[in-house]
Each structure stands twice: as C-alpha cells, then as structure tokens.
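Please, structure for the following, as tokens.
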Amino acid sequence: MTRLGFLIARTLRQEGPLARLSVPQQSLMDELEGRAVALVGNARSLAAREEGAMIDAADIVIRINRAPMPSARSHGTRTDWLALATSIRPAELDRIAPRRILWMSHKRKRLSWRVAHTPGFYLHPLVDWTTLRDRLGAPPTTGAMMIDLLMRSRLRMLSLHGFDFFASKSLSGSRDAHQVPHDFAAERRMVEDLIARDGRVRLVGA
C-alpha cells in the first residue's frame, strides 16, 4: 500500500485495506502457545516494587502504550510486543524497541504509517473491541483488551504487573479515574473472575 492509499483508507475508515497490513490473529495465538507472558501495565505503584527480574524472565514481555520504564529494578528492560492505543513519537518507539506492535484502538485515524508498516504488525479487529466494550459497559483500556486477547490463547502463564486499576493513577499521565472513559471496577472484576476460574493468571503485587 502506498502512503497516500494508507492515508485515504485511514481517513475514510476503510477497514479492509488496513486489515490487510496486519498479520492474522492466529499468528499471535501460535506465538503465545505454551509461553509464559508478562503483561506490564503503567500503574505508578509498580515503580515502588522490585518486579523487573520477574518481568524479564518471561518468554514474552508485553508493554502498553508509551511504556514508561523508570527503572530496570521495577519494570525490567525487555519489550517483545507493544500494545498501542495512542499516538507515539518515533523517539519513544526507538526507546522501547518492540519486536512487534499491536494496534488495539478502534480509532484508526490515530494509526501512523510507521506503526502500520512495522514487521509483524497486528491490527485488533473492531468486533473484538466492541464485544469487550459491551461486556464491561465502557470502553476497555488497552490492558483489558490485551488480557482478553491473551486469555483466548493457549499460553502457559500470564503474569500481570503494574495493574492496580487506576488506584495509583498512571505513570504516563496525571488524570484521575473520573477523567478517563473506562470502568476500572468492571475491569477489576473481569480480572478477579479470570483468576478465580483460570489458574494460568497471576496478578503480581496485589
């Protein structure tokens, strides 16, 4: 696809041409099978803990949006996948250096040419976003979307780091829970239900 074609498809919300830039969801499922995954959220509370070594020991390390990493002690250093639902500057992408980028947002107009043309790029289907939104009763966070996606795979273990459901706010912003359009209580219940019925999930630091 040419850059002009990409811009037209993005502006007009032409899902077909954009979806053709993506690897199939099954490619992610195949890579996840049998793996231990660390999903790293952006809660400020993680900066006070020592989970970096545990994060880096996972088979696949997934970070979210601008992926703040204030120290290796708390956050580790590796990023295999970056789950994005916001714009990101090239310098930030270079810092994070993910092996694969997943565009999780339903807002296609925010998707950049660079992100969409990275090796292994994945575009999360709109129907998956809508289904989870309806379950939660509010637009899902990037973290909730990733948890939902990951738990449909045959991964061996999922460790959640830096998830306190906005109790300590986010390392990447200063907004309070009432200033963002998510239902953190519903997302907490979703995770608690997963932990209760699926032994593969662990909420670290809870």
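Residues 39 and 147 are 8 Å apart (CA to CA). DSSP finds ten helices and seven strands in the chain.
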